[in-house]
Specification:
single chain, SLC12A_fam, 32 helices, transmembrane helix, membrane, potassium:chloride symporter activity, alpha/beta, symport, 3-stranded antiparallel beta sheet, 10-stranded mixed beta sheet
Length: 1043
């Protein structure tokens, strides 16, 4: 039997470990590449497949590797083991045993219940009122619930290694989206650490040890007091951050051991608050607030809420009197508002049974005194506000959107379970249940808290500076103070532990090149460099020093992450890819889109400028990964979306041919490769790039001779060479290599089979055959003429650049010169369109366009020029127009002589190309009619005569002596040669200095016996011109004057 024992994957980052450039999901089956190649297959039942066993393992072997698979990465657990035992990294990691409660539910509770609940919840209700805060809480909780549903669907669609939301988004939406959102999620987690540390310092300096402040607040008021408080936050925040970073650097095991302690603090604090709420419902505590007029006073520096009290000796002023008057006597000069208004005392916690609710709230400008509605006051509206430090003032300008931005971080932390997927016994079961249960629990507590907290005063300054929520705690307010302090410390440590590992996972994926250095760490895998960067970014948040300013920043990054989780689920659901089979069934694409819409709306509700900045950051990272990042194929949904969109577009294109306004050159570029499969004519691709202003399809094809089975490796090398050359010349398109028994058939296959559906080439670009006059290359020009015939039959346009090596590269620039168009016959407008497209490229941009047309004897050249100018005006093409008159003239002796030499050369080449037997038969036949000299000697003399002819010397006598054919056989050849010579003379005269000449390419003769003459005609037509582009239309209009 098959020995199907396989090695379990180690957790120390082996060759298939997460983040080393070879992700697990690169193989269709987990660990399928770990099957030993040396396994021997005993028995004869599988002999039929024994030759394929190396690449296709037995099912039993595959199942064994799947059963032994462990998705536990080298996380904090393994780091702890590595610190305690150096050999731990060499041993297989045991299967994790954490369930839903410990692995998902409680970590989510710990991350959701945090600093905002303890420090800002009562303030939010006091400012926004019950209804406003209920709307805020309901929106935020709905967003996280919808996101949790989408996340549960993604997390249960296969094995999710460590990496949490980053892994899910990157594998669902591709490396570009994954990298951008992953970095944003990393920044959000890092700023969350800064927020927790600031909350920790706020609790310490305001509620636990106010006298520990380095910058004293006594005697300061207004901006000075605010600046001193912020400086204290910066100094202490930096110290706490440094201490926490050292703890994380020294060993994560200390953080893991304290995690349960911090979680216990959170749970005890929540229980203490709601125990106090129940108690105060029946026995409201004596918790007075002092009101002067309708202004709330800071309960500090006085003990009795009254101006005067009656004693045995009479009426005596109180300490409150001394705060507003210049002396303690009754005739003292006092503050005007103090003198005109009475002092009253109200209960800060009236109790549920009192029926007093703050339904609508009240928003304030910064520095405005907090006033209690329903109490009359006497004040001069023009009088300035004095004794500012005696009143409770609004420390920031409040409005609804600000409250949303400050509150949203309190519902984050729903990813805590998915981030620990490697530690779970059954992640696909625990993540949905634990996350949704945690969100349900916290949402109910938050929604209930909007009603209970509505009974509290708005600011702690009015209640002796105590933590407002702590006044309700049972049995003592210190339960909340100490519990919230340790819970914020624990949350800060968790952020400093998780954020570097997230950055390390991104760096090890290799999708962001400049982050690769942060993938390295200590010997046990601790992300040292990532921790250092995280501490620096966290320090920038601490330097802001305001909890209310940092909260909207991390809200942006978390909301963007949640938005893309919803997008990933919606895309995968709508695409219906075969691999989308989540075990969690309670999802729908409409819910995902609703969650995505809520996230996007909340981003702009919180802060529109922060939202724009976050989107710009994500867009820049996206484009950077797109252009500079590593190529990754993760089977993501964006690729599937591209396939669906491409299929839809192709089906639409099948409905009919494109309108003339939508016509653009869809190029099939035919290039040749040498024996090493390197491109022989790179300037062909340069010209292709310069023609691509039309943004059409480009297919670069080449033909190889042989059979597919024997020449497949050469075809792969040729394809790689084409791709590399296309990348060098910045040609965006596709490449195709065809193998056939001969090059002629291979080229024909390319022309016939290129493209797909309605997206097919309509123009063929092929270079003029070099050295076609040489006897050994006779098949080259024959193939070329057949290609011209095939493009004509297929109604394809044809572009033939002559002397392609003289064409400019993409790096060259023409600062002057012209592109001359010789419009001899109408070809559908190709000659007009091509110069326009060329001039869109920076190489030809400064060249002007000139159009020449030919007038015959019966034509009115003046009217032709006027009509052509009007035509170009309607085409919106700027060009100079010139009409060249060509009068009828007698055919010169030079024309006759050139035609004679051409025909004789054709006969000689035909004789040379005969086989030996055919040559002998031809010689026997020629003995009765004429004597034909040795072909090799004839060709030598012919070349000499042709050189004399091209230099202007008439070799009539030598030709008559050499050849015995008599006269020219085909008089039509004389007429064609006459036309070619006359046109060439005019073109050479007018366009000698042109940077490029475009002219109509005449079609080949219908009689194949004159193919070699056709090449001579084209050679004569373009003689003496440096750069020529022969153009042959496809038989349809490609340009129009209509809009």
């Amino acid at each position: 039997m098959l020995n199907n024992a396989t090695d379990c994957e180690e957790g120390d980052g082996g060759p298939n470990s997460q983040g080393d450039g070879n992700p697990k999901e690169s193989s269709p089956f987990i660990n399928s590449s770990d099957v030993e190649k040396s396994q021997q297959y005993d028995g004869k039942n599988m002999a039929l497949f024994e030759e394929e066993m190396d690449t296709s393992p037995m099912v039993s072997s595959l199942l064994s590797s799947l059963a032994n698979y462990s998705n536990l990465p080298q996380g904090s657990k393994e780091h702890e083991e590595a610190e305690n035992n150096e050999e731990a990294r060499k041993k297989p990691v045991k299967a994790p045993r954490m369930g839903t409660l410990m692995g998902v539910y409680l970590p989510c509770l710990q991350n959701i219940f945090g600093v905002i609940l303890f420090l800002r919840m009562t303030w939010l209700v006091g400012i926004g009122g019950v209804l406003g805060t209920f709307i805020i809480v309901f929106m935020c909780c709905s967003t996280t619930m919808l996101t949790a549903i989408s996340m549960s669907a993604i997390a249960t669609n296969g094995v999710v290694p460590a990496g949490g939301s980053y892994y899910m988004i990157s594998r669902s939406l591709g490396p570009e989206f994954g990298g951008a959102v992953g970095i944003c999620f990393y920044l959000g987690t890092t700023f969350a650490g800064a927020m927790y540390i600031l909350g920790c310092i706020e609790i310490l300096l305001i509620y636990i040890a106010p006298h520990a402040a380095i910058f004293r607040l006594e005697g300061l008021e207004g901006p000075e007091a605010e600046a001193a408080l912020l400086n204290n936050m910066r100094v202490y925040g930096t110290c706490v951050l440094t201490f926490m970073a050292i703890v994380v650097f020294v060993g994560v095991k200390y953080v893991n051991k304290l995690a349960l302690v911090f979680l216990a603090c959170v749970i005890l604090s929540i229980l203490a608050v709601y125990a106090g709420v129940i108690k105060t419902a029946f026995e409201p505590p004596d918790f007075p607030i002092c009101i002067l007029g309708n202004r709330t006073l800071v309960w500090k520096g006085f003990d009795v809420c009254a101006k005067m009290i009656e004693q045995e000796n009479g009426t005596v002023t109180t300490k409150l009197w001394k705060l507003f008057c210049d002396s303690e006597f009754l005739n003292a000069t006092c503050d005007e508002y103090f003198a005109n208004n009475n002092v009253s005392e109200v209960q800060g916690i009236p109790g549920i049974t009192s029926g007093i609710l703050n339904l609508f709230g009240n928003y304030y400008q910064k520095g405005v005194a907090i006033e209690k509605r329903g109490i009359p006051s006497v004040m001069d509206p023009d009088a300035p506000l004095s004794s500012l430090n005696r009143y409770v003032l609004a420390d920031i300008t409040s409005y609804f959107t600000l409250l949303v931005g400050i509150y949203f971080p309190s519902v984050t932390g729903i990813m805590a379970g998915s981030n620990r997927s490697g530690d779970l016994r059954d992640a696909q079961k625990s993540i949905p249940i634990g996350t949704i249960m945690a969100i349900t629990t916290t949402s109910l507590i938050f929604l209930y808290g909007t009603h209970t907290h509505a009974l509290f005063p708005r600011f702690g300054e009015a209640v002796n500076g105590n933590l407002v929520i702590g006044t309700l705690a049972w049995p003592s307010p210190w339960v909340i103070v100490i519990g919230s302090f340790f819970s914020t410390c624990g949350a800060g440590l968790q952020s400093l532990t998780g954020a570097p590992r997230l950055l390390q996972a991104i760096a090890r994926d290799g999708i962001v090149p400049f982050l690769r250095v942060f993938g390295h760490g200590k010997a046990n895998g601790e992300p040292t460099w990532a921790l250092l960067l995280t501490a620096c970014i966290c320090e920038s948040g601490i330097l802001i020093a305001s909890l209310d300013s940092v909260a909207p920043i991390l809200s942006m990054f978390f909301l963007m992450c949640y938005m893309f989780v919803n997008l990933a689920c919606a895309v995968q659901t709508l695409l219906r890819t075969p691999n989308w089979r989540p075990r969690f069934k309670f999802y729908h694409w409409a819910l995902s889109f609703l969650g995505m819409s809520l996230c996007l709306s909340l981003m702009f509700i919180c802060s529109w400028y922060y939202a724009i900045v976050a989107m710009v950051i994500a867009s820049c990272i996206y484009k950077y990964i797109e252009f500079r990042g590593a190529e990754k194929e993760w089977g993501d949904g964006i690729r599937g979306l591209s396939l669906s969109a491409a299929r839809f577009a192709l089906m639409r294109l099948e409905e009919g041919p494109p309108h003339t306004k939508n016509w653009r050159p869809q190029l099939l570029v035919l290039v040749s490769v040498d024996a090493e499969q390197n491109v022989e004519q790179p300037r062909m691709l340069s010209l292709t790039c310069q023609l691509k202003a039309g943004k059409g399809l480009t297919i670069v094809g080449t033909a190889l001779e042989g059979t597919f089975l024997d020449n497949h490796p050469q075809a792969q090398r040729a394809e790689q060479s084409l791709r590399k050359m296309m990348e060098t010349e910045k040609v965006k398109g596709f490449c195709q290599v065809v193998i056939s028994s001969n090059l002629r058939d291979a080229t024909s296959h390319l022309i016939q089979a290129g493209g797909l559906g309605g997206l097919q080439h309509n123009t063929v670009l092929v270079s003029w055959p070099r050295n076609w006059k040489q006897a050994e290359d006779h098949q080259t020009w024959r193939n070329f003429i057949e290609l011209v015939r095939e493009t004509t039959a297929a109604h394809l346009a044809l572009l033939v650049p002559k002397n392609i090596t003289a064409f400019p590269s993409n790096g060259e620039r023409f600062t002057e010169g012209s592109i001359d168009v010789w419009w001899i016959v109408h070809d559908g407008g190709m000659l007009m369109l091509l110069p326009f497209l060329l001039r869109q490229h920076k190489v030809w941009r400064k060249c002007k366009m000139r159009i020449f047309t030919v007038a015959q004897m019966d034509d009115n050249s003046i009217q032709m020029k006027k009509d052509l100018t009007t035509f170009l005006y309607h085409l919106r093409i700027d060009a100079e127009v010139e009409v060249v008159e060509m009068h009828d003239s007698d055919i010169s002796a030079y024309t006759y002589e050139k035609t004679l030499v051409m025909e004789q050369r054709s006969q000689i080449l035909k004789q040379i190309n005969l086989t030996k037997n055919e040559r002998e038969r031809e010689s026997l036949h020629s003995q009765t009619s004429q004597s034909f000299p040795d072909p090799e000697m004839v060709l030598e003399h012919y070349c000499h005569a042709w050189m004399q002819l091209t230099n202007g010397v008439t070799p009539l006598d030598s030709a008559s002596d050499l050849f015995t054919f008599g006269s020219i056989r085909n008089q039509s050849n004389v007429r064609r040669m006459h036309t070619a010579l006359k046109l060439n003379g005019v073109i050479a005269k007018k366009s000698q200095e042109a940077k490029l000449v475009l002219l109509n390419m005449p079609g080949p003769p219908k009689n194949r016996t004159g193919d070699e003459n056709y090449m001579e005609f084209l050679e004569v037509l373009t003689e003496g011109l440096n750069r020529v582009l022969l153009v042959r239309g496809g038989g349809r209009e490609v340009i129009t004057i209509y809009s």
